[in-house]
Amino acid sequence: MATKLVFVIFILCCQMNLAQDLSKLYEDVNPAVVVILTEEKALKQVGAYSQMISSEGLGSGFLISETQILTAAHVVGVAERVLVQFFDGEIIGATVSSSFDEPDIALITLAFPKKNASVVTLGDSDRVKVGEQVFVVGAPYGLAHSLSSGYVSGRIKNGNASNPFTNSEYLQTDAAINTGNSGGPMFNLEGEVIGIVSHIKTITGGFQGIGFAATSNIVKELLLKRSIPWSGAEIFPLSEDASKLLNVPQKNGLLVQRVVRSSPYGKLGLRGGTVKATINDTDILLGGDIILAINGIRFEMTDETLKKLGDYAASVKSGDPIVLEVLREGKIIALRN
C-alpha cells in the first residue's frame, strides 16, 4: 500500500513539474507569436452572375528576425493586404517574400523592423520522435496567443528532394488546432519551433484530434536556404485529361485561379478565373489564363521540368526579364515585364 502511495505521489509531482515547465516555456516564446490579418479577393455567385469581393482572413505566425515572419502559405498566398499584430498590440504591414503550396509554408517581410523584437529559433525536426510532447500557440477563432498541447502522433513525407514544388513533410499531432491557428508555431519542450501549423483532418468540420504541421526542416530547406520569390498567383496544375477538356495545346498547363494585383505576376497582367466549376471533386475557377511556359521552360508535370522551374525561380533577381506564354480565350500570347 505504501509503495502504491509513493508511486501516485511521484506521478503527481511529475505532472506538476511538467505543467510548470510548460507555463514557463509559454511565457518565454509567446511574445514572438503574431496574429496575421489578411484581405484577399474571392469569387461570389450572385444569381446568374459572379463577382470578385474582398474577403478578410485570419491566421498566426512567428518572428524569426526583426523583419521576417514564418506562416502558412494558405494564410497569405493570395492576400492583397497583410497586417501583422504583435503581442504588444502594435500592427505593421507586411509583404509575401516566398511561398510553397504543397508543404503550406510562407515567409513574409515586415514593412519596417519590429523594435525590441522577440524571436524564436527553428529546431531539428528530424530528431522529433512519435510520442514526444509538443505545444501550439496561435489565434484559434481570433483568440490570440492561445496555447494547446499534445503529442506527436506520426510523420508524413511526400515528394522528391530534387523538386521543391511537390516536396512536403508533416508532423501529425493531437494538440488542438482550429481556424486561426494556421501558420502558428509548434514547439518542442526546449522552446524550439519544430513545425508550422497547417491543417486538420475532420468529418464534423471541427478539430477531432488529427492535425498537421509542416516540419521545421522543410521550412529551412525551401524558405531559408534556397528561397524562391513569391509569384502572387494561385494556380491549378492540369492533368493530361483536363488539358484535353480545356483544349490546351500541350499535355499539361497551369490554370490560373487568382492573382494578387500588386504581385510580380499581377503586374504582368496575368488573369484569374471568373467561373466556379468542379473537376474530379475538386472546386476550381475557370476562365483564367493557362500558363504554358515560363521563360521558355514548357510546363510538364514531371520531376525534371519542375526541378528546372525551381532552379530558374531560385536564380531570379529583381528586375530580371520574365516571359509567360499563356493561353487566353483560345489564343496564345506572351506576357512580359
TrEMBL record:
Single GO BP term: proteolysis
Keyword line: Hydrolase, Protease, Signal
GO molecular function, one term: serine-type endopeptidase activity
Signal peptide: 1-19
InterPro entries, A to Z: Chloro_Bact_Ser_Proteases, PDZ_sf, Peptidase_S1_PA, Peptidase_S1C
Pfam family, one: Trypsin_2
Protein name: Trypsin
Species for this entry: Flagellimonas eckloniae
